[in-house]
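subagent[fold] <- orchestrator: predict structure for attached chain, return tokens only, no commentary.
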Amino acid sequence: MKQLVFATANKNKIAEVKLKLGEGYNFLSLDDIGCTEEIPETTGTLEGNALQKARYVKDTYGYDCFAEDSGLEIDALDNRPGVDTAHYSGSRDATANMTKVLNELDGQVQRNARFRAVIALIQGDREELFEGRVDGYIAKEMAGEGGFGYDPIFIPEEHKLTFAQLPQEIKKGISHRSRAVAKLVTYLKQ
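subagent[fold] -> orchestrator:
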């Protein structure tokens, strides 16, 4: 069985990806390999940050790995928060981040947005990128108890409910991360 590290300590992301990867790989997290330091994310792009994290794990710990970076891009905010999604308000507090977005969009009619996830895979000396995307728009107020992050304000275009209001099975099936992971899994099974 091949070993593959997912360069994250985010338990929500780990659970979501683990379901999709299934058999064939001994799936490890950063905790499993003893990586407790903060991995840099300084490139300014989702693609660059995903590659930076994967390269850090490969170079420092020697494991084949993949890393993911994702962001919410809002047309009316010039694609912000984007790469700064996790700490848009200056902290990692999801409610503060959503409140900042809602305040910035106050009075805006055009609320189109998208979640993008980019996965960088390093196996040996080969690097690959996989992108997942879900289009939608930003609600006028927070709604729903499920999910995490910006889920209470993001409404995917094929639904009328926020990610936080949708059953988790539906959200996991259409999320940006799920779509990127599906591309990763297809590649790994080739």
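orchestrator: received. Logging for downstream: DSSP finds five helices and seven strands in the chain. The domain at 2-188 is CATH 3.90.950.10 (Maf protein).
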